[in-house]
Design a protein that fits this description.
mainly alpha, about 160 residues, elongated, single chain
Length: about 160
Amino acid sequence: MSEYTPNDSSPPTHLPHKAKPRGKPFTGLDDPRRSNAGTRTASDLAFNRSLREIIVSVGNEPVKQGDVTYTRVEAMVRGLYEKGSKGDVNAFNALIERVEGKVSQVNELTGKNGGPIQTQSVLLTDEERISRLIALVQVARERKAIEEAKSNSAD
């Protein structure tokens, strides 16, 4: 048996070959096995349209502030602007994100001292796999014996 390293051009000889897939392949959107989780229904879409209409209708209602009349949306924007100009960071961010769009957040992962992340491929031989499985079975048997002893002493 040969050890496989990522730099080898030949496939590993100790790994099993892909088995023939079981069952029939999916036929597309009309396949009855297809998951509809997360799919919006017609009632969901109708509710969203109704809610949007209500929000627009309420947002366009007039509001009097002092001597001036604004729509509710204009009053909200002016309120956010006033708060933002007085140092409220959340109000400022809300305005900027509506105008410019949210800033994308970049996460960069690096290894030690900013270098590449070190990875290690661990491939076991059949003998190593068997010995590890035997060790796991032995641990499980020991734990079971301890549990049985505890339950027998409790009786």
